[in-house]
Amino acid sequence: MDGIDTLRRVPANHIGGEWLAHADTMPAINPATGEEIARLPRSDARTVDAAVAAAVAAGASWRKVPVFERARICMAIAALIDTRREAIARVLSAEQGKVLAEAMGEVGKAADGFRLAAELVKQMGGETLPAEDPTKLVLTLREPRGVYGVITPWNFPVNIPVEYLAPGIATGNAIVWVPAPSTSLVACELMDAIAEGGLPAGVINLVIGEGAVAGDAVVTHPDVAAIGFTGSAATGRRIAERAAGKPLLLELGGNGPVVVFEDADLDAAAAAAAGGAFFNAGQVCAATGRVLAHRSIVEPLCDRLVEHARRHVLGDPFHQGTTMGPLNNAKVAAKVREHVDDAVAKGAGVLHGGRTREDLGSALYFEPTIIRDVTPDMKINREETFGPVVPVLAFDDDAEALQLALDSEYGLSVGVFTTDIVRGVEMARAIPAGIVNVNAGSTWWEIHLPFGGGSGTRSGIGRLGGRHTLEAMTELKMITVTMSGGMRP
Ligand code: NAD
Questions:
Q1: Which of 27, 71, 122, 171 could bridge 36 with an S-S bond, Cβ 3.0-4.6 Å?
Q2: Would you list the domain boundaries of the chain?
Q3: Distance 155 CA to ligand 1 centre (A)
Q4: Is 475 assigned a catalytic role?
Q5: Distance from residue 100's CA to the centre of ligand 1 (Å)
Q6: Looking at ligand 1, which atom is closest to the CA of residue 233?
Q7: Ligand 1 atom 3: the closest Cα is on which residue?
Q8: CA of 371 to the centre of ligand 1 (A)
């Protein structure tokens, strides 16, 4: 049985608690076969207007629901996601292309995300502050911002939405959510669990459609107070311009690197670099992106990386034994192909992989790939590849390692491998990335920890994760009370 057999309903928008069909449609494609598996709504700005109106109406009462009741509903949603874990994971694999084991992991974490928001919101408080004026009592409270527009990508189409939806509703916001078109079926599955988990109608509204139409209508809508967006740097920039004046959470692209010094544990470094490049077929914002290795250890490191690549079995995500599925869509597959071809044309050497494997079922299969002799000018070093490729660049000393690491428009997540803790921390402090993991790969993160891009880079604005999202999705209100002073001791 593949995922599509477990679809709970015909894909539709979910607005004001109702599943609503839309006359204009677009295809949902199975990336493993290239076949159309369903028709999706291609919603327009009028649909967004209806969703925003539903969110405004529902939000007015939702913000008054006691925090403990909102937390209880988040826990109920988490329990339902757990119950439906395999069914949701099957749809995720069928539509996104990731292997079922990874899809099961993702859905499990989505349930954890609702539980985490439920726990944290019960502890989220304000402050009382002193003032020069002795008659003033000063309080701060955290209040919902209103209607949040949430726009999400296709690489983790269950987890990334939950990073906004769970803290968003826990803190009393209402939401209009536009998922990536190529993962809209699993968005319906998640929405179904949220609605049946007991969330009042209209608090989260799902609008399926093209980003440039439905997403843009959300971003520019006057009744949408704030935006949470995860996706590419280019779209993030456009959203920042179109949403001018609204509070933004922007989680954008990255490009590693994983830096491996000559004193590093090479087994650990290779395992982490390969894991970070091949997990989800490399379609991870925090993916390894590129490896910077001291010239003296390039050979043994590459040998180990090739060993990891060899162990992968590329194929249909539902087949027993498959460890890597197809890429999600033609755009990302074309970019991976272009980056590898550009590197080879400019003199890099492919040690393993490098081929598109249409024979496996569609043009979206790309082999786990190791490339050495990569130079800074190559696209694979400069841009985000978003595929199962490890490009290795050599450096001769610490200064050159830092220079290569800094020579990037991105600053999301970095790994540094060295047994010299001072060197590791100095490197970590010198790189303007949101996250630097010393002796772990660039993908290491847990959902309660702050995740986001460094300032001055193209990787985003703000931090997601744990209390950081709850704080970002709320507004600090200051209330002052002028006392008479008459009853002071
Ligand atoms: P994308 O920017 O093409 O699309 C992301 C979302 O934006 C989709 O839902 C899309 O429909 C929508 N969109 C497109 N144009 C829009 C517009 N003009 N207005 C409003 N919405 C619009 O990105 P993608 O290819 O779906 O996702 C991959 C990218 O996401 C990669 O760059 C990756 O690094 C990034 N990403 C970042 C993080 C992070 O946490 N930093 C996590 C995952 C993915």
A1: 27
A2: 4-252+461-476, 257-446
A3: 9
A4: no
A5: 23
A6: 32
A7: 232
A8: 27
Judge contact between 429 and 408, C-beta under 8 A: no
Look up the CATH superfamily of 257-446. Aldehyde Dehydrogenase; Chain A, domain 2 (3.40.309.10)
Closest C-alpha among 92, 407, 96, 43 to residue 281: 96
Could you tell me the distance, in angstroms and rounded to a whole number, from the CA of residue 162 to the centre of ligand 1?
15
Q: What percent of the chain has pLDDT over 70?
A: 99
CATH of the domain spanning 4-252+461-476: 3.40.605.10
For the stretch 85-137, pLDDT in tens is 999 999 999 999 999 999 999 999 999 999 999 999 999 999 999 999 999 99
Per the document, the length of the chain is: 489
Contacts of 75 (CB under 8 A, 6+ apart): 114, 115, 118
Please state the rounded mean pLDDT for residues 21-38: 96
Active site residue 285: yes
Q: Which of 102, 163, 189, 251 is catalytic?
A: 251
Selecting among 163, 285, 383, 384, the annotated active-site residue is 285
- Establish whether residue 253 lines the binding site of ligand 1, counting it when its CB lies within 6 angstroms of any ligand atom: yes
Give whole-number Cα distances, 363 to 320, 337, 356, 421, in Å: 21, 11, 7, 44
